[in-house]
Amino acid sequence: MDVTDFYALQRGMAPLSTGQQGMLTVYDLGLLRLPSGILGACDPFANLMYPQKIALVPGDYPVRVTVADVSPEQDGSHLREAYLSLVISETDPVTVEAAPGPDGPPPPGYFFTVPVDAGTVAFVDADAMLRCMPDPSTWYEGLFDSNDANSWFSLMDAERPYPAGTANIVMPLAPNGENVVLSHSGWGDGHYWLLQTKDGAGNLTGIHIDLAVAGRFEEEPDDSGILSTDPPVPLPAKKSWLKRLLGQ
Fold first, then answer.
1. Number of CB atoms found within 10 A of residue 112's CB
2. In 63-219, which ranges are continuous DSSP H helix?
3. Residue 151 to residue 115: CA distance in whole angstroms
4. Residue 18, domain extent
5. Which pTM does this prediction carry?
6. What pLDDT digit, counting tens, does each position of 45-90 carry?
7. 99 domain-assigned
8. Looking at the domain assignment, is residue 240 inside a domain?
């Protein structure tokens, strides 16, 4: 993938997958605590227990979302999340490539993807999730949609302290603030590329979920968990119980 057609963490006008130009804005979503160093990327409402995993140095990392104005008038009336990014370095990236999995990088020309079935993506410490979340049978009514102001749906709907459609949530059993950072997934459900960027010395600068909003996309995705070198077309959100969460 050519870094010149990659727009994560960039501000200003950029080409969109709709064929038009759109304004990009970057929002800070706080820090992700990563004590184990095993980053998990997933749809938190569908696959929190089975994230794509990437090994990093343990620590706390900034997470940012790049949002695109896809409205024809460029008046802010239609916004879509274009990238969810874990920032490792503030150095400008020189290369962008497929992020590796637990056993190394995918075959040349292929990319691991984050499967999305609930219109949301997230970063989490994959090891911390196993010890900081309660019984999964309680998640939906007890955490996600409890009608409480601190339910995950409510926190994502809120416009503060992070933009609506995003949240930074400490897991219920976390002893040291272990958390999940969430964002709506651009166009909705589908499979989205998991990418990494590097600086000129080959050092990692970030891990990114590309939500197929910014850049040029032409080919249909498959359902195999990896995609060919041609990026996926943007996918519409499914009509499901997450219509309210998606604002549709």
1. 21
2. 126-132, 139, 152-157
3. 23
4. 3-231
5. 0.88
6. 999 999 999 999 999 999 999 999 999 999 999 999 999 999 999 9
7. yes
8. no
